[in-house]
Design goal:
Length: about 500
């Protein structure tokens, strides 16, 4: 069915006057959300880990017709959630063609549209907005002015049209009026200067704005949503108390609660669909990459107030895949299988996302990053090999065995050497790798075993990636002891 193109056609269409006149953006979001809830489908797509925590709170805020704020550390999908709100808007929204603030054809609020309807009547031309066009986003910065948000008097427009400065026809509208009948999002709200935050008061509570002190009343229809980082409350600014009081719901976001949730997010976001060889990412590699972020969020050498973004494992995984891809291209391998050694080459994707405390700064970002990778490898190794007897493998190294696994070494060449390590290939079944799997897959699994043993200090490895026997702790010579006198007796070595 073609959409009505004039006001007269609109009156005879399913766009009922009563519905369009009285239904505001928050009502529209609420109605469409209720329909989606009745269908028992997902509220938002591509949002993982918030199904039982954040999403129910957002649903409650929309059902309550609240302005709301998402409060959380960086990399917690705050902006993505706000942009997903457009899926709760109608497919098409009619407005008077040429109107800067997308006026409702049945209830225009700007002078230009009222005059146009009075002149053209039922033949007034209409246009339509898609849901994506009804989302306006502003990144809050200290240089934002009231004129940017609300608008200003344009003397050039007044001169060209022969209007007085007090006329509504001389107004140059800011972002808020241009977001009329839409969703208006402010990212990093605390960065907005306090005097500018005051400019949001009227639009949130009374639903109108004033331009440059002139009594220009614009009863705008806007759903306001915000994001903020708790660190910003003291680092760069704060949300002033009266504005916080006008925000209906404050919703806290969080990082993935489990490694599996983190893996799902990284698999969804990381660019893995390369146009080269077939790519096979072992599950243990995904776990190692994800556990780096989990280890970083618990490490005392890393600033917890700043947080460790979910972008860390995403960027790390992309670097891991790229290094494996580079090796496969150079060695003319038909399948690309990332190895644990590829994670170490992804340090540039890790160190730049860590805000270090004093102790971390003293040790250096590279050292901290390597510690995190080693810790992640150890924990992942324990998931697969706890209780497995590795004595035969470690004994091979104790008897003088050495093997070099360069990160760019071809799988076929390395596989010949790995077969010499007694008991190693047999253990690969713990990660679902067997003798019929490709050499690339077997080498990746075998290296994971050796890296896990190294992470637990059962075998050694140098910077050239030569695996050797682990260092044995020095033996302390025992000395004879004598007993001290007194009620609390102890033994001390004789000099």
């Amino acid at each position: 069915m073609s959409l009505p193109r004039t006001l007269g056609e609109l009156r005879r269409s399913p766009f009922s006057e009563e519905k369009l006149r009285s239904r505001r953006v928050k009502d529209e979001l609420r109605d469409n959300l209720i329909s989606r809830l009745r269908q028992n489908g997902p509220i938002f797509t591509r949002i993982v880990g918030y199904e039982d925590t954040v999403v129910p709170q957002i649903v409650n805020a929309i059902l309550s017709r609240h302005h709301f704020i998402l409060l959380g550390l960086r990399g917690q999908a705050k902006s993505r959630i706000l942009r997903s709100l457009t899926t709760l808007l109608d497919p098409q929204m009619p407005f008077i063609a040429g109107c800067e603030i997308h006026d409702n054809p049945y209830a225009p609020i700007c002078r230009r549209c009222r005059d146009l309807i009075a002149e053209c009547g039922e033949s007034t031309a209409l246009a339509y907005l898609t849901p994506e066009e009804r989302y306006v986003e502003k990144l809050a910065t200290p240089d934002v002015t009231i004129a940017d948000l609300i608008g200003d008097i344009d003397p050039i427009k007044a001169a060209r049209g022969g209007h007085e400065l007090a006329s509504e026809l001389t107004v140059h509208y800011g972002l808020l009026p241009r977001a009329n009948r839409s969703i208006f999002a402010v990212n990093e709200l605390p960065d907005l200067a306090g005097k500018i935050q005051v400019g949001l008061f009227n639009i949130m509570q009374e639903g109108d704005v004033q331009i440059k002190g002139y009594p220009v009343r614009l009863p705008l229809d806007i759903a306001l949503v915000f994001t903020a980082n708790p660190e910003d409350y003291t680092a760069r600014g704060k949300i002033i108390t009266p504005l916080k009081d006008r925000i209906g719901s404050e919703i806290r976001t969080h990082y993935p609660a489990t490694v599996d949730e983190g893996i799902a997010i990284t698999a969804q976001e990381a660019w893995a669909s390369r146009n080269g060889n077939k790519l096979v990412i072992p599950k243990y590699v995904r776990e190692v990459v994800e556990r780096i972020a989990f280890a970083a969020r618990e490490d005392k050498k890393i600033d917890k107030r700043s947080g460790v973004s979910q972008r860390l494992p995403i960027s790390c995984m992309e670097n891991v895949i790229s290094n494996a891809e580079r090796r496969a291209i150079r060695r003319d391998e038909k399948i690309t299988v990332p190895r644990v050694s590829d994670v170490y080459t992804a340090l540039p994707a890790i160190t730049g996302k860590l805000e270090l405390e004093y102790e971390g700064e003293m040790k250096g970002a590279d050292h901290v990053g390597r510690e995190l990778i080693r810790s992640a490898i150890a924990k992942t190794y324990d998931q697969y090999f706890t209780g497995v007897n590795m004595q035969q493998v470690t004994q091979w190294f104790d008897l003088g065995g050495e093997i070099q696994l360069a990160e760019d070494a071809g799988a076929a060449d390395v596989m010949q050497t790995l077969r010499n390590i007694q008991g190693l290939i047999d253990k690969l079944t713990r990660v679902n790798v067997g003798p019929k799997d490709s050499p690339e897959t077997q080498v990746s699994a075998a290296e994971f075993v050796l890296e896990g043993l190294h992470a637990h200090k059962r075998i050694g490895r140098n910077e050239e990636r030569v695996f050797t026997a682990g260092e044995k702790p020095p033996k302390i010579a025992e000395k004879p002891f004598e007993r001290e006198e007194g009620p609390y007796r102890s033994r001390r070595p004789l000099n």
